[in-house]
Design brief:
Oligomer: single chain
Distance between the termini: 34 Å
Strand content: 25-35%
Helix content: 10-25%
Structural class: alpha+beta
Number of strands: 18
Radius of gyration: 24 Å
Number of helices: 6
Shape: elongated
Largest sheet: 11 strands, antiparallel
């Protein structure tokens, strides 16, 4: 067991390393921790209700925060607000924080919550999933420059995969250029700080940042209403088809799975278009690639984008409030 003096010395060393990384991007001046608030954010009378690393008993706040700093997996902690009969506090170390599980952060009368600054800076919804987040919703993620922004995460619809929403629009907004005539590699943000299903597109910078941390992409129809049942659904691998940088017409590109009006297939090619007049989309009325979804198609039927010629039997274009989503994602590591 470390002596109190040596524990405080180690606390200073550990917290200095954290703060050096944390403040390097904010200030050129060296910053040294003088108080706990330099390293932890304290939320009085709050509790994060998530599985923990373990619960120990300590004599004071310093001992609890020292244990968290000493454990690389610790992102935050719950600490008893008052000592028990043995004059000790219970201290629960956590591998999560309120940014990962915001719905589990609650007020209470018996504990305080301390979140470690700067240790966890997720770059996609995948990293939130790796840290134990499991509820769909809006989370904070960081771009390649270290700037944070809100993003919608789908963590449940496909077990073992986490998805970040990059674009969504309704049929009634299909004529807006960002959704109709702009390929992914052109910067055309729409409400990028307010994720929604009706009119939303990330900037190119944020898309590229997410792409670096993603292996797959997918397109869905009316996700807020239907979730994922793999009807009118498209998924591919960036390794096979880089949709962000694609420009072309009538090109057969490999996809992992596609379903259009119930006609589907796996590991086959489908025809794609994207240029400076057409947003990325496929056309189910033709069959020169391996996909054949011509049965029930309308002439020049557009699917998953562009929507010049639409079919009311295709879920993305059934009604004015029908929506189309594009997502980037990856498998969670076991």
């Amino acid at each position: 067991m470390f002596s109190p003096f040596f524990r405080r010395f180690l606390f200073f060393v550990l917290s200095s390393k954290i703060l050096e990384a944390l403040y390097a991007e904010e200030s050129p001046a060296m910053h040294h921790p003088n108080h706990l608030q330099d390293v932890f954010v304290k939320e009085e009378y709050h509790f994060l209700n998530v599985p923990g690393i373990g619960t120990i008993t300590v004599y004071d706040t310093f001992d609890c925060t020292f244990e968290c700093l000493s454990n690389p997996s610790c992102l935050s902690l719950n600490l008893a607000a008052a000592k028990g009969a043995d004059r000790q506090l219970w201290c629960e170390l956590l591998t999560s924080n309120k940014d990962i599980n915001p719905d589990e952060f609650k007020e209470n009368k018996t504990s305080h919550h301390f979140a470690l600054k700067g240790r966890f800076r997720p770059t996609s919804c995948v990293e939130h999933g790796q840290q134990g987040a499991y509820k769909d919703g809006i989370y904070k993620i960081y771009d390649n420059d270290g700037n944070s922004f809100p993003a919608y995460c789908d963590l449940k619809s496909e077990p073992g995969i986490a998805w970040t929403l990059v674009m969504s629009w309704s049929k009634k907004n299909r004529c807006i250029s960002a959704f109709r005539s702009t390929p992914f590699h052109v910067n055309a943000p729409e409400n990028e700080n307010s994720p929604n299903g009706d009119r939303y597109r990330l900037s190119l910078e944020r898309m590229r940042s997410l792409q670096v941390h993603s292996t797959h992409w997918r397109a869905t129809c009316s996700y807020p209403t239907h979730g994922i049942d793999f009807t009118d659904y498209l998924r591919g691998n960036f390794k096979d088809f880089n949709i962000v940088d694609f420009l072309g017409n009538d090109e057969c590109k490999k996809v992992e799975y596609v379903d259009i009006r119930g006609l589907n297939g796996t590991n086959l090619t489908a025809p794609f278009w994207a240029n400076f007049e057409l947003g990325l989309h496929t056309d189910s009325s033709i069959d020169f690639c391996e996909l054949n979804a011509t049965v029930g198609a309308v002439s020049s039927e557009d699917n998953f984008g562009f929507y010049n010629d639409i079919n009311p039997k295709f879920r993305c274009t059934q009604a004015d409030n029908s929506t189309t989503q594009w997502w980037f994602g990856a498998h969670l590591k076991k």
